[in-house]
Every structure is written in structure tokens, then in C-alpha cells.
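Hi U.,

Before I forget, here's the chain from the pilot set. I'm dumping it here mostly so it's searchable later in email.
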Amino acid sequence: MHYRNFHEAYIETLHETYHHPHFFNAPRGNPSREKLNYHLSIKNPVERVCYLASRKTNIVFNFAEVLWYLSADNSLDFIGYYNKKMPEYSMNGKTLTGTAYGPKIFEFGNAKVNQRKQIKDLLTYEDVDSKRAFMQIFDATELVIPKNTDVSCTLGLQFFVRENKLYTASFMRANDAFRGIVSDVFSFTFFQELMARELKLELGEYFHNVGSIHVYQPDNQWTEKVLQEAKSNPPKMKPVFEFPKMPFTDNWPSIETVLKYESLLRKDQIQMSSLDNGQLHLPEYWKQILLLFSLYQYIANERPIDFSLYTNLLPVYQHFMINKWPSHFKEREKIQY
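Structure:
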């Protein structure tokens, strides 16, 4: 299935998995509807979000998760701050194994292989047409751990340089069509865009390949609500917003700066005003992400929102923030977005 953007892909995939499953089953006692061997492609990987109001996309978590990966961190403290359900997947209450893709990307296996650097070097200096630019995520040893609740859903990512464009394919053993796919496609297309900027290439298509795609029974009612909204607003319609593009430069210095401030905000060691944000030596793309983290600091700590941060957000991010946390933006309910 070919789609222009993730917004379309999400709606169609959710509809097909929910209404036309191959199987009804209950892996590990969790009832679900399931399709096997599912594939889709997205023409514009930058458009990596679902804009439907009923889905309540958590844009803060999306950016936090991909930056958590890029930090090579596996700590629960980092990602658990943005998703209160993450402790359920940690066996020791301190770290995550399967869900923490970062260490696998930058220090895979006993040899501590930096797979990102290996792929970049391969596609830059060694063999631009290579079919070997594969980044492994799933490790068979994860299944050896008794009662492991945190096994990697992603098998790996493959990168292709073809006709001066970077194409990326993900391979997943399993994917939740309602929840997981939102975060996974966001992160994997972010990796694709970041790598394309490093290699000074344009973006090609993104391909998403899943062994088992499913919707779990507890999400049935919410799924029906989302699909009803999509039906009343035809999914082929172009979304109102345009998602920002990553700067055409080396973005790693900016990522390091964002991670530094993210840590300080998460630990509540600093508060950043819109003026502080504006004075940072960062491209606007990355300043916007820090604005999101700064706003979330108020939400996480249950403080009144600093609306100067909100007003400096791009309209697309304002849409997601007010839609996800409407009670925190009561003074802004009349804003048209």
C-alpha cells in the first residue's frame, strides 16, 4: 500500500487491521485482531504524524523517544518521565532492554558496534549502492531471559542510496496498529531524515514491513472513535498543517545541545522562558523541540503554563499541545488552529 504521508497510512492501516483481521487471538493472554505480513510505503517521510484530533498524538513523547534513542541511553528515568506506563516494561525498575534501541544502534553486542557510524561510512566511502546498510535491533538473546516483558518489536532498519535519495525500510516482528505504529514510524523516519542530512541526500520513500500488525481489545472503543472521525473527514484530504523539515546541515551538535537542556528540564533543575530559548545558538527546528519540552515541564509538574512558550510554537505544534492537554490550555480554548 502506497501513501503520501503517515496521516493517510495510519488511518488505512488501522481500518484494515480492525475491520479485516486475518485472526482473532490472544498472545500472552491479550485479546487482539491481527493481520500477518503487512507492508506500506510513505512517499514523504517528513510527514510522520497523524493529525486526527481524536487520536491525540503526543508530539512531546514522539520527540523524547527518538532523542532517547539518539542519546544511547537505556534508563527508565529518561523515557518514563514522558510516558508513565514505561515502568511496566522494566524488569529492574531502572532500565529497559528491548524498548531501548539506542544502545543497540550505537553499541551493539559484545563488540560494541556503532551501527550508525558503520552505515554512514559504508554509504559514504565504501559502497554507495550497498545492500548491506542494515541496522540490527532485535537480539535473539532477548528471548533467553525468563519472563522478559520487554522484547524488541523492531528487527532492524535498512538504508539504500538510490539516484541521490536515501530510502529506508523497517522490519518489525510485531506492531500495534493503534499505538505503537505512531511512535515507531515517527522515530524511524526521523532516523531516515537525519541520515539523509548527514549524507547530503534527498529523502526517498519509507517502507514499513510488519510480521504481525494488531489492535488490542482494550483499544477497540478508541479505535472506533478515531475511524469515525476519519470517515467524517475523508483521509485522502491533505492535512491542514505541514510538518517541519530538519535543517540541511550536520544536526548532531544541535542534538547534543537539545539533550543537555532536555536533561535539565526533565530533572526540574532549570526553567526556560521563551527569551532564553530564543537566545540559544540553535536552528529554529531544534528550538521548537526545546519549547515543547519546556511546556511539558509545566504539565508534568502540574504548574500553570507559561503561555509565552506556547505562543512561540509553530501552529502545527500548538495543534498537538492543545489537543493532547486541553485542560492545561483553558485560556487558549478559543484559539483557532
